[in-house]
Structures are given as C-alpha cells and as structure tokens.
Protein 1
Amino acid sequence: MPGPRTRAACFVAAAAMAATVFHAQSRPDLSGRWTSSPDPAAAPADAGGRGGPGGAGGRGAGRGDMGSGWGSTITVTQDAVRLTVEYAFFSRGDLQPPLRFTYALDGSTTTNSVMMGRGIQTETSRVRWDGDALVIVTTHRVPPGVGEGAATVEVTRRMTLESPTSLVVETTRAGVRGGPATTTRTVYRKL
C-alpha cells in the first residue's frame, strides 16, 4: 500500500493534469469555414467603387493592405494539440491544392513550407494564448538578394471570436527597412 507521500504526490499530479485539461477545454474553438466580410470601421470606398475592407476581391483588406494574408475564405480546424488554417490560393485552372498551415498549440515552434514562384518558402511559427485570443507569431525568411537589411520579417496574427459566428484576425506586419509596423483587421463570418 502506498505511503502518505506517494498518495500526496499522486493527488498533486492528478490535480495538475485535471487543471491542464480543464484549461485547454476552456479555450475557444476557432474551427469552421469562414468568409471575410466588410468591416464597417474601415475606410470608405475608393474612387473605383471598391469598398475599403472588401476591396475588389472581398478579402477583408482595406485599400492597399493585405488583410489577414490568408484569403477571403478559410477553413480552420482545431483540436487539443494543433490548429490548421487552409485556404485556396491558386485558381481552379492551376490544379493546385489549397495552402495548409499547421500550428502547434503547445507553444513549440512549427515550420510550414509552400512552393511559391521559383522555390519553396519556409516560415516558422509559435503560438500562445492571450486570454481568449490565439496569437500566432510567424517569421518569414527573406530570399537572398531581395531588399536590404534584415533577413527575416515577422507577422503576428491575433485570432478572437467576437461571437460564435464572427472570427476576427488582427494581423501586424513588422516594418520593412525600418518603417513602421502595419496592422489590419479582417472580420470573418461563419459559413
């Protein structure tokens, strides 16, 4: 029969495991198929009649910005250990599969690679929870010979549920060549 110290250690371990499981379960589930919609707080339509956040393609981006960087329709899947974001980047005629990015929810570094242009582009990401917001910090390598200065660029995406049918992605891109960082806000509605 186990002694008092062994029972106490088992109790502490069981309590810690239960707290971890409860904490993981209390996080919002961002899963779903989402499409961007115009943000009423964004800039008014430009001279061409393409509204601010929707632009010509309805990507949730304002004039000249890149929105979330994930496109106008995304599929998010989330389980206890990972979050995956998938979206169509190529047209149907390109015969290419959707782009898929997977992020570890335990805070470990994940690497995603995609074939773009003349080669494979690799990015590394780390994820953390900030209250009910999921924050993904991604570092992109800048190919040799492109621009001057830093060899990497950092992009931070903050994902929050405004409601069960509204996902907000605030994307902050580090400034290029010492310029200021930019932040965009994309609102997705559940399909």
Protein 2
Amino acid sequence: MKKLSLLVLVLVIAAFVYFKPKEDKKNKEIFLSFVHIGDIHGHLLPRENLRFGEDKFSQGGLARLFTIVNHLRNRDKDMVLINTGDTIQGSAEALFTRGEALVEVLNAFGINYYAPGNWDWVYGKERFKELFIGEKALAHWNPLMANLYDAQTGALLTSPYQIQTIKGVKVGFIGFTSERGPMAVGDSVVEGLRFTNGDEEFKKYVTELRPQVDILVVLSELGLAKNIQLAKETAGVNFIFSSDMHEETHKEVVLENGTVLFEEGQDGTRAGELNILVKNSKLLGYRFKMHTVDEKIPANSDIEELVAKVRAPFVDVQKAKSFVNPFSKRHLQGPIDQIVGKTQVDLHRSNFSAFEMP
C-alpha cells in the first residue's frame, strides 16, 4: 500500500512538472535601457556653467557622470552604454597623452558601442588604431563606422554594424563617424582614409538590417540636422543617438516616420537615458530623460581616484614639464592648475546660437 501511495505521488509530481503552465515569452513585455554620452572633449573634471542668462553652477565631471551610468546599470544589468565621439580632444590631459588619459578613465564605464567624432582623429590614423582598433586596442569601446574606408583597398576600417540579442530582443546598432574629420584636423592626419557623408551607407545598412532585427539603433557623429535628413530619406530606424554640434535635446526629436533622435550637449554635462518596452518583437513605447550632471550628483569615489591618478603628473611641478605637445613638440611649462592670469569677463563658447558670444 505504501509503495502504491509513493508511486501515485511520483506520478502526480511528474504530471505537474510536465503540464505546468510555461512562461509565455511571446507575449511578455521586455524592458530595455540605453544610456547615451557624447562630445566629452577631454573633460575629466567639472567646470562652471557660464551660459548667458543662467546661474553659475558646477557641471560635468566624469566621476559624477559615472554615478548616473552606474545607477542605471545597477537597475538593469543589460543596459547599453553608447558614446558618440569627440572624446579624446579638448584638454591638456587628452592632448599630452594623445587621448590615453580619457581612454583610461572611460574604460571603467563599460562603453558598449562607440561612433568616433571628427576630433578623435586628431592624433593621426596610426594612433587612432592603437587606441580603438583590434583586440589589443587600449579602448574597449567596440567602434562601429559604416562610412569610413581604407583609401587604397576600399575596405571598411571597422564593422559597420552589430546585432546583439538582449533579453531575447534582437537589436541592431549601426555606427557613423563624422565626414568632417579631414576638414577639422587636416588631410595629412587622416591620409590613407576615405570618409563619406553617410548617405549611401545609411540607406544600405538600414535596408539590410531592418528585416533582421526587432529594434534598430543608429549611433552617429554626423550631427543632429544631418541625422534628421538621413532618417527622413530612409525610414526604419527606431532611435538615433547623435553628436557633433553640441546640441541638447531636452525633449526628444520625433519624426513623422517614427524615428526618434537624441543629442546630449558637450563636455560630459548631460547624459541621456532611454527606456523602451518591446512585446512580440514590436516596440510598445519608450521614455526619454536627459540627466544634468551637476553638483547635485555625488561623485563616484573610484572614478574620482582614477581621474586623480591620471592627472597627478599634470599638477606636479616637475613631472608636468616632461610632457611634450605632439604637434608643436614643445614641453609643458608647468602644472596645468597653475593660475597664470585672469580676465575681467568669462571666456567660453558654450552659449546657444540665439545668444551673443562674450
């Protein structure tokens, strides 16, 4: 009798395991998140906001920016961090290390995809390759460029796109660098490379990827106006993360064909957060938020220490003099935090176009 009862129990458990309701993945709503940074221009530390008609306040700083990135990644471990270029130029630390100071700090951010900007070519083709191309690259940022070719062979320098499955959702990422690279930094610096304006490549790769993916994302340093033009001419892109002209989309730009665009200003003073819902391989909706990186955001101590380490030689009286400008070949004359003079007006170039320059 006991054996019979045991057999019945085993059969009941087996039946429950076999016939229990299975998770309906097909009808499940899936949450995906993206964070966008761009046009950091070598800014490791916070700087003062000096725009016309606005209060002065401390903004930016990579340690504060990381606090936002880290918080959002802790909420969603599959979050995708996108960097749209002009990263390794604009500060003494960037200049005298030919970009390495920024790479060392930003490697800690866990950047998933990168579209280089025009100023990221400033130290030359070979240095760019050292920093970004191949398994031995110093930066672990996965560059994507659909519009940059070897001038002799016609081969693309990097992959034009990548398809990543996130929580069961197929997401396509297409990258574009700025065609203004040669114009901004000089033809000799990018000798052997051929940049295009992206017109043909945008149409080609959007058409190729759209049937293969559930969500299609473009990361582009072609500028907001150009990206709007491209998206209007070729429908099918869900989201475009844009950089180049330091514009700020406090509210996303939505085109009639459904493409949505974002741009996050300059110098690491803004970060864009995009959350989307997908169901049955279709986009249900999205929410965008632009985060202001200011004194209200606590600095991450680990990144603060890393920034201090990178900057230490630059603020040391003797070590600073060992740095050589890669262009002029002149030595740095002293620590970069030394005050050598003052102006009676604030000198900056961060006003919006409707305001006069100082």
Protein 3
Amino acid sequence: MWQPDQVEFHPHARLRMAERRISENQVLHTLNEPDRRYPSYDGRTVAERDTMPGNILRVIYVERLQGVLVLSVIRIAPKRT
C-alpha cells in the first residue's frame, strides 16, 4: 500500500485535481484499492475506482523506486441527458 509520503503529484495532476475537486485522499484510495488496474503506454499504469453509480475516478501514474508519480487524474461521470 502506498503511503502519502510515497506519492508525488506532477503539476498537471495537481491542476486537474483542483479543476475537478479531487482530493489527495481520493487519489491515494484509488491507488491503494482500485476496482481496476491496467497498463497504459510508456510504462504508465491506470488505476480506476468506482466512486458511485456511473462515476469513475481514473489515476494515471508511473511507479518509481520509492513510490509513485501521479501524472493525471480524471473523473468520469455519466452523460447528462
């Protein structure tokens, strides 16, 4: 399990978190207890967690020697009709 001091946030991730009102705790929870985890490109990994019906928190990161670097954070919500 990743501890808060092992998680570094890229400036892009910080910007997206602020825009989307996503906390560091939500990101840490997604990293530690994802509903899905799968590889992406360039050695990146994606962790996804279903936060409520139809909502998904997606964290894109790379693992490092002493922790992880979070590159981006996305909240996917159902389309409104």
Protein 4
Amino acid sequence: MPEVGVVIAAGGRGKRMGGTLPKQFLRLGGIPVLQRTVAAFHAIRDVRTIILVVPPGHVARTRTLVRRAGFTKVAGIVSGGTERQDSVWSGLQACRGRADLVLVHDAVRPLVERRVIVGVIRAAGRYGAAVAAVRTTDTIKVEAQRRPGYFSHTLPREGLWSVQTPQGFRFDILWRAHRKAHKDGFAGTDEASLVERLGIPVRIVPGSERNIKITTPEDRRLAKSLLKRG
C-alpha cells in the first residue's frame, strides 16, 4: 500500500468569523473545528502522516490541541502563507519524503465522511489525481464582463460539479503542479486546477452534502444541525 499523507490547511491567513479566533479554532458541538477535521483523517488506517498548516501565530495553540487530542499521526505544524495556495505549498514541503499519495483538505470541513476520504485515496492511487465533488443542482448563470450586474448566459447543469475536499494526488504530480504554477505566476482556486495545467485528468469521486465548508455563521449553524442528526 502507498504511504498516504494529508495536508490540512486553512485558507489564506485564517479568516475570522466576526471574532478574534480563526474559524478552525471555533467550537462545534463543544470541540474545536480543527480537532474534528483532524480526527476524521486520523481514524483512517491508510493515513500515515498529517501535516497541519495554520495561521501565523497559532502554531503553539495547535500544538497544544494536537497533544491533548492524542493525534500521533500529526508529523508537522507549519505556518501558512498569504493565500491558500501558499499554505498548501508550505504543507507539501513539510510532507515531502513522507508520502507517495497526498490528500489536501480544508481545515474548516470537519464533517467529511470516511467513505469520501477512502474513495479519494483509492481513486488517487489508481488514476493519479482525484477530487471529491457533488453534482450542481442550482442553475448557474454567468455575469456579463462588459455589463456588470447583468447575466450574459446560463450554463447547462448537466456536467457541472461543485468541488470539495479532500483532493488527492500522487505526491510527485502535485509537487510538479505547484512548481509550475509558481514559475508561471498562476494562482488556482484549488489543487485540481493546478494539476489540470499539466494535462493530467482529474477523477471525480462522489462527495457528500454533509461535507460543508464552514465560512459563515450560517454554515456553523448548519454544521451543528448536521451533527445532531448524526
């Protein structure tokens, strides 16, 4: 079996939700969001190494959280960069030499399910690149570039997916993708967008409607409701 590493990163410098703490340290059902996120991956047998990328100034707080939770698979805690892409690159460097496959996951997606994680690991091992995603059910319209505030056209829903994390790759593929993006000055919206620039197809793995990203107070309330449902 390939060695699997996980980079769990916050977006940018760890945006806050109207308070003083970055969102991943807020409590969800009495437990910090980040702790719930790490626990989901720590429980997967194939995951051997976890690297945490946290906002500058919060390494010590994270180290305490990891120690109290008993997360023995956490092999490194590093400070993130200005943008999410910078943070993931920092995590990749800390993970280099520790894994054949690497998963990248948002720190504020604490409700990711085991089947999704395992599905991405298996697909990444077989195809080299895989992401969790759910089919888009909303109608998606494109704003007119020459006339802001108005739509120019509507995209057909068939074939549209809303991308989640984890996103999994052979380590060498994601390393090359980040190196090329840095060289070209390209900023992607996710790791898959960097890998696609190498001409490598990315396999779709069915995600979950529970796997929400907590970015607003409304998201947090929804996550609490999902937790109560079990």
